Every structure is written in C-alpha cells, then in structure tokens.
Amino acid sequence: MSAAAEQPFETIEIAPMSPTIGAEIRGFRMCGDLPEEQIAEIRRALLDWKVIFFRDQDVRVEEHVAFGRRFGELEVHPFTPNREDHPEVVVIHHGPKSKLGQNTWHSDVTWRLEPSLGSILRGRVIPDIGGDTLFADMIAAYEGLPDEIREKIDCRTATHSFRHNFGRAMTDEQREAMSEKYPDAHHPVVRTHPETGQKGLYVNAAFTTAIDDMDPEESAKLLRFLYRQASVPEYQCRFRWQENSVAFWDNRAVQHYAAFDYVPAVRRVERVTVKGDAPF
Known about the structure:
The chain has a single domain, classed as Double-stranded beta-helix (4-Layer Sandwich). Helices cover 21% and strands 25% of the residues. The protein has 6 helices and 15 strands. A 7-stranded mixed sheet has the order 1-2-3-13-5-15-4. The protein has a 3-stranded antiparallel sheet with strand order 12-6-14. It has a 3-stranded antiparallel sheet with strand order 8-7-11.
C-alpha cells in the first residue's frame, strides 16, 4: 500500500480489495450537489486504488452523467451504441443472441491521440451468475518485469489503432474515412501517470498493433509477453456486479476484462468516459 493510500479519508469509507488495486467506497451516493471535499476524496481514492466501486447507486442517467463531469469533460465514443438522449453514455448490452463480449484485456480508447482519463460504468441489468469484470494493475505489472525487459521498453513507443477491433465491422471505405478522423496513435510503451508520477505498462491486446521501430517478429513476441502481464493474479482484483453497482477505473493505470460467461442471461451496463490527455 502506498503512503498516500494510508492517509485517512473524512467524507467516505474505503474497503480495499487487494494490496494495490481495487477498493469499495462506502457512505456515498452519486447524486445531488456533492461537496467538492467529497469529490476530491473520491479522486484521491481513484489514484490510490486505480479502480473504485460503489454499491446501490439507483440514480437517473442525468445524475450518472453529472457525476462523470465532476472529473472532467466527457467524450462521445464514435464506434459504440450510445443513448440517443445522452450520446456520451455508451450502452453495452449482451443477451441470448450475443456471440462475443468485451473479453479481451484492454484499456479504453487507447487508439485516441489523447486517451481517456477514466471510465464510470453502472450495472443496469445483471445476470444472477457470471458477468464479473476483472481489473489489472499495470503499474504493478511494470514493476514486476525483469530488468532486461524494462530496459528494452522504457524509451519505446507503440502504435495503437481502432482498425483491428472496431474496424473489423466496417467496409474498406468506412475504415479509411474513420482513419482520417482517428489516425493511428503512437504512445509510450511505459506511460508515466500524469498525477502520481508512477510508471506503468501501456500496451494492450485490443488496440496495440506493434512496437515502433522494432523488427516485426521481435515486436510481436515482446508484445505477447507484455500482454500476458495483465493475466497475473497478483496484479488483479475481480468485481462481482449487482444492479446499480458502479465501477470507476483509471484508464491510465489499469486494464480490464469483462467475463463473457453468462449467456443466455442478459447483461446491460452503461458507461461515461472522462477525457484524458496525451500519454508521456
């Protein structure tokens, strides 16, 4: 546990889920005119634990959106189903006819030149069994790498693209048109967190395509090794959803994996995403 995580909180109660990642926040409801002191403590809890959870948040969609805006401007995702009344709300719905889910370790929208700060996801319809989300601490993952691997990647950048994920469902013409709006991004393989100064792995299997200026075969082999770090149990926490539960994670520090183990049951969740800045 970091020294920051040991500082007491005055407006919320923290229940850690692991030594470095994940904590449930108690004594809080994300509606109404929340005091700045409480928002500041929630932000500090997010930095300390990288993903935080709230239970029993039976709030209106407008309150979900308003809560997200307390942490920054919200983005509109160009490739996902979004609510017509609130386009900044991404709707993720899977049911009996779904053939695949978000079951790849990833950090949201790293294909953007300025990827998101964080995502705030609320459970609307939750299966009785299954549908958990796993989160991996990519700062701990970086710290656990062998010295020779860290030396190899510390000053490298990698290419991130929507093409081999969202782009698969597009025509060639659509892909090219969207590529003009969202060109490939080149982000550091090891990102420095802009608020904590910690270093973490910043490549993911969903959107990273290659390590720049590296032999393609060597790049692919190294990326496979780096992707596997998210699967190490010691770097993880796992969240069991309930209706009106909320997960708020720091996309600059974690990856997540939505377990797709509940079909034919239905799972519907809604997400707002806070804009971030260019990784360095």
